[in-house]
Design goal:
This protein is an alpha+beta fold and 124 residues long. It is built from five helices and four strands; from the N terminus they run ααααββαββ. Strand 1 and strand 2 form a beta hairpin. The protein is elongated.
């Protein structure tokens, strides 16, 4: 019984049209999980590194003076980050910190500095 109903559905011209339209839409728009082509990850990483190394150096000097990284960034650095076109985020446990830029879901990548590995890296 179920097989007959499925066979009738597949042979229905409305179903075939709907299936064809769905297939064409998939071909046109595809999947949105790929990185956005308008952002050059390497160029963005170089720009971020140059622009925010001052913040990294400041955080490292605070760690040397106080023995830990600050829980939040100073107002000056928060204002600097607020002007950034990519979403930025700072997280610190006291022993380590991470400063990240970009939103993986939106931009297709993130660029971050990790005090644990002492270098800039990307997720893409």
């Amino acid at each position: 019984m179920l097989i007959r109903e499925l066979d009738a559905l597949v042979n229905n011209s409305m179903f075939k049209k709907l299936l064809l339209k769905t297939f064409l839409l998939f071909l046109l728009f595809g999947c949105d999980a790929k990185p956005k082509p308008h952002l050059n990850i390497i160029a963005e990483k170089v720009r971020i590194e140059k622009q925010y190394n001052e913040v990294i150096l400041h955080l490292e000097s605070l760690k040397e003076k106080t023995g830990k990284y600050p829980a939040t960034l100073s107002v000056d650095f928060q204002q600097l980050l607020s002007k950034e076109k990519l979403k930025s985020k700072y997280h610190s446990s006291g022993n380590y910190f991470q400063l990240s830029f970009g939103d993986y879901a939106k931009d297709g990548f993130t660029i971050y500095y990790s005090s644990e590995i002492k270098k800039w890296a990307t997720n893409s």
